[in-house]
């Protein structure tokens, strides 16, 4: 099963990077009507959530800048950024680096039980499976937002 998870991560992260690179920089801060966040937030949220589920929750590790969770965590919004947010090219670099960290997770680590079950997950592999699904969902949001923004302009 773990080989499937790693293959899915490589595939979905490749799509995320491709989609993020395809977004014109001048629209990453635009929030389409009816959306709570913008494209930059979506990309940062993918990073922060993956970091949480694969590294922070099971191992208390964090490879990202400490303020990413404040900026991109669940329930956050760009309304509170105050110019502290990274640029899209930095987030893309962080996506690439994070994939390298993900690839270093061993099959043994994937099978490890969480110290305390959380969010309905028992193992690191449970977290990884959710992270793949979660990332794919947010890729769709980015593409949706990009279409809306570019169609209106």
From TrEMBL:
It comes from the Bacteria. Residues 8-140 form the DinB-like domain. Gene3D superfamilies: dinb family like domain (1.20.120.450). It holds the Pfam family DinB_2. This is DinB family protein.
């Amino acid at each position: 099963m773990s080989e499937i998870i790693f293959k899915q991560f490589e595939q979905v992260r490749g799509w995320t990077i491709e989609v993020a690179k395809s977004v014109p920089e001048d629209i990453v801060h635009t929030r389409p009507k009816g959306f709570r966040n913008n494209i930059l937030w979506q990309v940062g949220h993918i990073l922060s959530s993956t970091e949480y589920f694969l590294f922070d929750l099971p191992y208390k590790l964090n490879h990202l800048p400490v303020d990413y969770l404040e900026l991109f965590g669940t329930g956050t919004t760009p309304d509170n950024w105050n110019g502290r947010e990274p640029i899209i090219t930095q987030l893309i670099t962080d996506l690439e680096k994070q994939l390298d960290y993900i690839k270093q997770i061993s099959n043994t680590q994937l099978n490890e039980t969480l110290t305390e079950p959380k969010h309905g997950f028992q193992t690191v592999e449970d977290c990884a499976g959710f992270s793949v699904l979660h990332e794919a969902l947010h890729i769709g949001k980015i593409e949706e937002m990009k279409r809306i923004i570019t169609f209106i302009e």
